[in-house]
What we know:
Elements: H1 2-24, E1 28-31, H2 33-39, H3 41-78, H4 84-137, E2 142-145, H5 159-168
Amino acid sequence: MKKQISALLVAATLCFSPLTMAAKDVKIGVLDVHKIMASAEEPKAIEKQLQTEFNPKIEEVKALDKKLTEDIQKLQRDKDVLSAAEKTKLEKKVQEQQQDLMKKQTQYSQESNTKQQQLMQGFINKVKKEVETYAKKNGYDMVLLSDAVPYMSDNIDITDQILKNLEKTKG
């Protein structure tokens, strides 16, 4: 039994040693996308643009929410003194306000997400192109995302170089 296991281990070692030798010749880089997104200027500018564009809509939703809260409080406070018709009218108004608020929140959220995806896609394409250019120029066989790598040495991290190149070529 021991001879069979030993033979199996020797065979496995002999079979995989060419792969190990070939893997030593592979040049791998690792990219930290989170650092790129946090450090590059373009995502910050996109965020600022989105805030400017959608801030009026956010304020509109806040105003609707405030009015709805006031009407709910009024309904709760005055429910005993309102006539049945007034109470029904106010309840209907509150229900319509809730529906309108939910509709606008959903609509604005979808619009904001769509716009953010559109704007960020351009930046993501620039990063991909820069990584590809850098990798080819510097002889990398593969570039992995840092999220997919449980451990890496700092000397294979190309994030700072990519950031520098993105800042040089921005525009």
